C-alpha cells in the first residue's frame, strides 16, 4: 500500500518570486494489489506525483509511506530497488541483449546467476516474448511494442511489490497499444502488484484502473472506481473532462464475456468472450442486431449479450 499525506511540490517563480504548486495538499491511498491510474490534463501534476513516490523529485511538504514506511527515512537508491519503474521512452540499454536488459536489477542486487536466468525466462514468457526467440536479440531488432514488453519485464525482474508506470503505452500505435494493455491486464491478474500509472488517455484509465485519481491544477478532483467517476462525477470539471461518451469509454474496459447472460445465441452475430463490450456494441450496430452470441475459448456459445444488457451495465 502507498499513502500520500498532504503531499506538495512547490516551485518559486524566478521572475515574480511567487510560489507555484505543481502538486498541492494531495492525500491518496493506493491499495495493495490494485492499479490506480493518475489521470488529468497536461500540467496537472501526474508525473510529478509519480516521481515523488520513488524520490526522483523530492516533495516540498507532506509524507509518502510505502507499506507503512516513510520514504524520507530510506536512501533513494534503496527505495528504488523496491519499486519497478516503466517509462514511455523505455530506456533499454542498446548494447545489451534482451535477457541482459531484463537481468539488470537482479545483477545489481547480486542475485545468483542461475536464479536470474530462470527469472528472465519466466518474465519473457509472461510478457509474451518467447525466450528462445527474443532473449539474445538487441533492442534495435525489436518493434516498439516488443521493446515496451521488455521494459515491463525489466521492471518486474526483482519482483518489486510496487510498480510505477509513466505513460507506458503512449508511444505505441493503437493496435499495439490495445494488445499490450490486454497482456498487461492479464499479467496483473496473476501478479497482483500495487501499480500507479500515469496516463493522459481516458480510455486507458477506465480500462486498466481499479481506481482512478483525476487531478486538476495539482489538486485532486475526484478519486474512486471508474464507475464512480463516470456515473457519479463530483464536479462539472470531472463530467466535462470525461466527456459525454464516458459510458461508452467505460465499456472498453469490460469484456463481453463478463456481461453475457445465459441464452440461445443461434443465428446471432458472434463475438469472442474476450472482446471488450464497446466493440461488441459496434458489432451490434454494424450487423443491425439487438444482441450478439458470445463465444467461449472452446468455440461454443457461452451466452448472449444484448443492447439492454449494456444499458444496465
The oligomeric state of the chains shown is: single chain
Structural class: alpha/beta
How are the strands of the largest sheet arranged?
6-7-8-3-9-10
Number of strands: 13
Tally of alpha and pi helices: 15
C-alpha end-to-end distance: 30 Å
Mean pLDDT comes to: 87
**Fraction in helix:** 25-40%
Basic shape: globular
SSE string: EEEHEEHEHHHHHEHEHEEHHHHEHEEH
Strand content: 15-25%
Largest sheet: 6 strands, mixed
Radius of gyration: 21 Å
**Low-confidence blocks of residues:** none
What distinguishing features does this structure have?
313 residues, alpha/beta, six-stranded mixed beta sheet, four-stranded antiparallel beta sheet, 13 strands
Task: Outline the fold blueprint.
Elements: E1 2-12, E2 19-30, E3 35-39, H1 46-53, E4 61-66, E5 69-70, H2 76-81, E6 83-87, H3 98-102, H4 104-108, H5 113-126, H6 131-134, H7 144-156, E7 162-166, H8 174-191, E8 194-199, H9 202-208, E9 211-216, E10 219-224, H10 226-231, H11 236-242, H12 246-251, H13 256-259, E11 270-272, H14 277-287, E12 291-295, E13 301-306, H15 307-311
Parallel strand pairs: 3-8, 3-9, 6-7, 7-8, 11-12
Antiparallel strand pairs: 1-2, 1-4, 4-5, 9-10, 12-13
Amino acid at each position: 500500500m502507498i499513502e500520500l499525506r498532504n503531499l506538495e511540490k512547490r516551485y518559486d517563480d524566478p521572475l515574480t518570486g511567487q510560489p507555484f504548486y505543481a502538486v498541492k495538499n494531495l492525500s491518496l491511498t493506493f491499495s495493495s494489489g490494485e492499479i490506480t491510474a493518475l489521470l488529468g490534463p497536461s500540467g496537472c501534476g501526474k508525473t510529478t506525483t509519480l516521481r515523488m513516490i520513488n524520490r526522483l523529485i523530492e516533495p516540498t511538504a507532506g509524507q509518502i509511506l510505502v507499506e507503512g514506511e516513510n520514504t524520507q527515512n530510506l536512501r533513494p537508491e534503496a527505495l528504488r530497488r523496491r519499486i519497478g519503474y516503466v517509462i514511455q521512452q523505455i530506456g533499454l540499454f542498446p548494447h545489451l541483449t534482451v535477457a541482459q536488459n531484463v537481468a539488470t536489477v537482479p545483477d545489481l542486487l547480486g542475485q545468483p546467476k542461475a536464479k536470474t536466468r530462470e527469472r528472465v525466462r519466466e518474465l519473457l514468457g509472461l510478457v509474451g516474448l518467447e525466450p528462445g526467440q527474443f532473449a539474445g536479440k538487441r533492442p534495435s531488432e525489436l518493434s516498439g511494442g516488443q521493446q515496451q514488453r521488455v521494459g515491463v519485464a525489466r521492471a518486474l525482474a526483482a519482483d518489486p511489490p510496487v510498480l510505477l508506470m509513466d505513460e507506458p503505452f503512449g508511444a505505441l500505435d493503437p493496435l499495439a497499444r490495445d494488445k499490450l494493455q490486454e497482456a498487461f491486464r492479464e499479467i496483473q491478474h496473476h501478479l497482483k502488484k500495487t501499480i500507479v500509472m500515469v496516463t493522459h488517455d481516458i480510455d486507458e484509465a477506465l480500462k486498466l484502473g481499479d481506481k482512478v485519481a483525476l487531478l486538476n491544477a495539482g489538486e485532486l478532483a475526484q478519486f474512486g472506481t471508474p464507475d464512480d467517476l463516470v456515473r457519479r462525477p463530483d464536479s462539472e470539471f470531472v463530467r466535462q473532462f470525461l466527456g459525454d461518451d464516458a459510458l461508452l469509454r467505460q465499456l472498453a474496459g469490460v469484456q463481453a464475456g463478463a456481461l453475457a447472460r445465459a441464452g440461445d445465441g443461434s443465428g446471432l452475430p458472434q463475438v469472442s468472450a474476450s472482446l471488450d463490450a464497446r466493440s461488441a456494441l459496434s458489432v451490434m450496430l454494424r450487423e443491425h442486431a439487438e444482441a450478439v452470441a458470445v463465444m467461449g475459448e472452446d468455440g461454443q456459445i457461452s451466452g448472449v449479450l444484448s443492447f439492454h444488457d449494456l444499458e444496465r451495465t
